[in-house]
């Protein structure tokens, strides 16, 4: 079953996050008070709703308590604080909130935010990959369709070799290096079995990253 996410606030960060989560196969509810922003993401996400999230009754009606993660991507400090507080009172399992500064982040933590992200450091693409799969450690977008990913070896990848996995032909992913402990090996031996905890550094299409995620999710 696909993970369910709600993204409240569809500015540059929230909009990017919602689109990427949807592209990765997640069910996404996108919410904003601005009708134009809602219309812009509607064709991509599962559901898009124009609503004022600072109204507690609206959050309750949207059924956000049942979502795996709710992301508060509202720029206005007071509004993000209020929405975060309401979400935690409603019993939302995990609330991720965009913060404009370290001070903003500290206050959000005090009212119950589970994770704080700083858009200046964490672009929407990167956050989306880390939310959808714990195996993705980092992601750097090169274009709308391609990126560089660091992904932890686990489950079905342990003990297999890169030659056997054939990631290039199957998924379009080229492994550029393997991190093992404090060592980074750029001269990758395609016949050496991968170990749990190894980190693959690969470049390729987002679709390829998503398919590799699915293998890891299945274990």
UniProtKB/TrEMBL annotation:
GO molecular function: monoatomic cation transmembrane transporter activity
Positions of the RCK C-terminal domain: 134-218
Domain RCK N-terminal: 2-118
PROSITE patterns the record matches: RCK_C, RCK_N
Top-level taxon in the UniProt lineage: Bacteria
InterPro entries: NAD(P)-bd_dom_sf (IPR036291), RCK_C (IPR006037), RCK_C_sf (IPR036721), RCK_N (IPR003148), Trk_Ktr_HKT_K-transport (IPR050721)
GO biological process, one term: potassium ion transport
Entry-linked Pfam families: TrkA_C, TrkA_N
Protein name: TrkA family potassium uptake protein
Species of provenance: Candidatus Fermentithermobacillus carboniphilus
């Amino acid at each position: 079953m696909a993970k369910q996410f709600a993204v409240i606030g569809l500015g540059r960060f929230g909009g990017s996050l919602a689109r990427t989560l949807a592209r990765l196969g997640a069910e996404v509810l996108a919410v904003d008070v601005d009708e134009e922003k809602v219309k812009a993401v509607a064709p991509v996400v599962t559901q898009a709703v124009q609503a004022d999230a600072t109204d507690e009754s609206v959050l309750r009606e949207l059924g956000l308590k049942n979502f795996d993660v709710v992301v508060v991507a509202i720029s206005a400090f007071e509004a993000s604080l209020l929405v975060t507080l309401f979400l935690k009172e409603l019993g939302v399992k995990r609330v991720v909130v965009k913060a404009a500064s370290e001070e903003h982040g500290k206050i959000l933590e005090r009212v119950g935010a589970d994770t704080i992200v700083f858009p200046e450091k964490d672009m929407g693409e990167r956050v989306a990959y880390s939310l959808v799969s714990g195996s993705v450690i980092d992601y750097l977008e090169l274009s709308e369709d391609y990126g560089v990913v660091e992904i932890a070896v686990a489950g079905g990848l342990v003990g297999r070799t890169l030659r056997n996995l054939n990631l290039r032909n199957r998924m379009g992913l080229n492994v550029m290096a393997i991190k093992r402990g404090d060592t980074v090996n750029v001269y990758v031996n395609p016949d050496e079995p991968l170990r749990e905890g190894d980190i693959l550094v690969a470049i390729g299409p987002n679709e390829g990253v998503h398919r590799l995620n699915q293998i890891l999710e299945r274990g």
